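Why run this: before we spend reagent on co-expression, it is cheaper to look at a predicted model of the complex and decide which construct boundaries make sense. The entries below are exactly what would go into the expression plan.
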Amino acid sequence: MYGSHGRRRRAVAAVAVLACLQILALSLPAWADTLAGPHGPHGPVSPPEGAGAVIRGLVLVTTSIAAGVAMLPPVAGPPGRHGRTLAHAAAVTAAAGQFMVVVAGGAWLVTMALATATLALPTMLSRPRSAAATAVLITIVLAAYGRFSAAQDGTAGVSGAVRGGAAPDTGFQAAVTPGATVHGAGLGLAVVHGLAATVWVGAAVYLATAAPADRRALARRLTPPVLVSAAALAVSGALWAFLDGVRLDRGVWSAFGALLIVKTVAAAGCVVALSVFLRGAGRRRGAARSPAVLLAGAVAAGTALTAVPRPAPPPVPGVPLLGDVTVAGHRLPVLVAPARPGWNLVHIGADQASAGTDPARLTPATAQPGTRYTWARIWLPAGRSPLWIGLRGAVAELPVDTGDDGAGGPDLRGPDGPECAHVALGRAVAGVGAPLRSCPADRLTAADAADLRAMVRFVAARGVRVIGLAGDPSPRGTRAAAEVRAEAGRQRLTVVAPGAARAPLIVVSGWADADRVVRDVGTGRVAALGTYLAPWLLSAPLLGPSAGQLVPLRFHPGDPRGLSYAAALNLRFPGEPATAAGYRGWSGEPGSQAPPRLYAASTLSVPGHAQPGGASGGHDGHGGGRWLPGGTITPITGPLAPGPLDPVSRYPPS
Amino acid sequence: MVLATLSVLATGIVASAPLEAAADGGVVKVGSEVVGSDGKTYSATNHLTEQAFAPTPGNRPRKWLLTWAGDAEPGTGGSPDPDFLAVVDATPGTPGYGRVVNTLTLDSAFGNEPHHMQYMWHKGDRVYAGGLLSDTTYVFDIARLPQVRLAGVTLPADTPCGSAPDAYTVLKDGTAYATYMGGPDVTGPCRYTDGQVRNGNGYAGSPGEVVRLDRSGKVLAEAPAATSASEDPELCVNIPVLPEATCANPHGIAVREDLNRLITSDFAEVRNMVTPPAPPPANVGRKTVRIFDIADRGRPRLLSVSRLPDGPRQETNPIAEEPHMVMETAVTNQPHHRGAFASTMSGGAVFYTPDITDPNPKWREVFDDSTAFKALFPTDTPQAGTDGGSWLMPSPDDRYLFHVVLSGGLSSPAANKEAGMVYVLDIQPLLAAGRGTRCSIDDMREVFAGGRERDCPRLVSALPIKDLTSGGPHWAAMDTFGLDRQGYRETQQVSRLAVSNYFVSSTYVDGDHRVCLVNVGPHGELSLDQTFRDENQGTPCVGFDRTRWPHGDHGGARPHGVLFAVADADIR
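The model came back. Tokens follow.
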């Protein structure tokens, strides 16, 4: 009956199935993610949220069944008795699940409207076009609203109600930021993927519940929409998976990967089973149920995918990497900079962590003055390699890619390395993938020089005749000290070493030396009439010690833009202090034209009451997303007047 | 219909337009602005709900509870939400009782940490409201309540010799004295408006000052709270150390214009923690009270610095001893009384001096919070040490003294650790004793049972206010407005208290962000006003941890200062 023509068709079908397998392998994480699960929080890893996942899966699957059955009558005619029964049951179950979402705190208006419309679907089957249109709208709303909710702060919508406040994370979810606005492409993919998957589910229900005698004719009528939706499912899923950072060569041996394989195999089996059925085997009793069972398995696996963290996106060669690892039950942020061949700084969001290229010989990460958490200096080879992060005896791998062009980056091993890394961190938080080519301590910007001169004039105007100066040997520190000395000379001020006189102390060093200076002033080891910090020393660890800190700034850390940076940083690297270097990296601004004002910084506390995380705070998340947790940075002057070296009425950009 | 509904939803889910429309629905916005000394414009916007204009039964004029609240959580993407003055309908028996009918948002400055307003409002007064962290005072014109107008702003640069504004008291001429608890903006010498100079260790350090403001927030005077000579350096720890040690960190403030006296209480050098690993020394919490001569209102002159005595409790944590951290001070009101009270936040005790015109006032402990705790909790009695003793006020007729306590002290039994409370003392015998008072808490029996002497204050009533957070009830206000056919008038009696459950979250002492009303019976008995209910939850007390406000869906807020007030047209 088939002959050579039949063999060729079988070969084409086999190739098609294999192609489907490849495409599906990329595409399948996506649909279930429409109701995104917990991917975001750092810190201790929570077990998959049982009730939330169940509700999520329930709403997803039953709504798909009800909507899928309602979509197909214009093409396939009305469903059979069993199909109608199943659609009724699915609609009731979906409505119940959506009601539970409302009870759990979801946005009642959208969710109850969805529940009402879903309940109405089976009763509309006698009006095929209305039923199909309603089903399409339900699917669009569910898919789009799910994506929209995933971009919010976890308090709204179907997703928000069941995922317990998980925040948007990497990959595709990052594409919906900043500002938690939904990227148009992401919405489009979600809608297309949802519609295609719903058609598949509907077709499977139709075939599984049809009378055996009707199946072949039904299958022929369903073939066009199923094929179109298969293509749409594959393309949208592949794009979605690509945006999520999923690649064939990585992530397979994780829980996420295992579920992905299950889902792929189930869906591929569904394709095969459908193919077989369409070629005639469907005459056998029960054969049509196989695709439905396999498809249900695929949907179940996809839903489960939302409860496990997805693999990190692949590193960009030669670009500082901000990634996450799950180790010893904790999800930790990790920064690798400059991510070039040679020595790199690895910054880990935990105390007592370690890092290295050999999991058996890790280098302890240590605290660095003026910073939070721990740092390790690690030599990385050219190209891709594994970086191992250790915590409490456990290790986890973070792939890094230093690039193959052999070019090196700035040397971050010195005391100014963390500040330089913060520029990279700011860029990474902003989603800017730029190589790190220089460091703030390499030179003194014109803006910073002007701010230092203005600060010296402010001090001189207060009537003092002596100032202290604390610098360091970096190019910036050297140049800054020269600027301060020159302006002091013009103001007829005597410059002395720190502590040589009880005088205003101007600090132009990097973070490490500044940390020592402010602590010494706070404890009285160094006498000073206030500590005047250079603009690049705006960082909570340097503002916490009680040293009368003042700092000239051209932006208000409490203004919306400054707070947005601090919040974004806290989301990606919880507890990490917001810094001037990080802000510059995040904002991408070369320098503000605004005149500087002098800001006073101070913590506030109640003696005798515990301060979680210490005065500098942040470890416990209390005050996270602020520049000085537990304190304030307040402008105490108007604009500082420009000096003769500054352009009239404006300050130079850095 | 289903299709139409879904079409609307499909359109709305991306832009969240329905939420914005809901926020604007029926809300009338009225703005006002002032220009600060820095040349910038500072604006505020009323968001008046329909309830603000709703008629009352019998056209009864309305009484309002002003609540000065800070945003508790950032908005989308970390953007700041505004701080605001909430206007709550406080007219019993009206349909809108307990509803937030207006929020005046501060649109130009965020993260103020709204703190205190003046203790009492009198007809014609403006409202002075401080931003603890922004070092800013806002002045509000409330003549047309429930609408409010921003009438002035006092910026950090306007008060170079002080920071961290805390409390306010308004004089008969409408000007106000304010305590600025923290030191000068810049470390070093600072010259006050009277020409005196004091050395300070900087922002939120020491010494603080007294500031006089006019009705538009303009600074009329900055007066030093510190003596020119050094105080006891062991008692007055300053970090970094000052050439002249000072305990001058004034928090509470009260005035007797008839006696030409102003009194302030020293709290702590608030910027003291830090410099780990060294723990903060106990003596960063202050034990002193300052009395000023204000015969010349524009030049408050420091007359005395008096120290509160230690009490009988022997605490393992020195900071928990009775005289530590004098948060509040309050003066008697009747012309024939000259005494004043002080209460300690960490010490958990109440002190009294009979005559504030005495050049060397002597203080005595007259009540320990332990007595009230014992009355409420005979077993598992909370500890008074570090209990967060807070707001303190005598009734205008000088019969009663009201005191709010934040929670059980740090060493309290777990069962009752969250036992915040408000209690009332009968102080008539104490005041009647005049300068011959004998009351003194001298031993542990008196700590838990009250003073033996006949003139000691007697506990009239105590009401527990449980707060399961790190904080609890902290601030309060008295309602003395009586209603007759001509409208409201001020009386000598207190009919209600408003109590707010919040301290300062950045100090890790927070609160559950509720504002409760407490009825005060004719004999001083206290009871929670069960009819003052949250409009969303339906439970007693108005919660500020809510999603929706008249100004939009900005989430939770932290209520600190509270104040009863009436529109000018409704009070004589």
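The radius of gyration of chain B is 23 Å. The CA atoms of residues 375 and 462 of chain B lie 8 Å apart. Bring this page to Monday's planning discussion.
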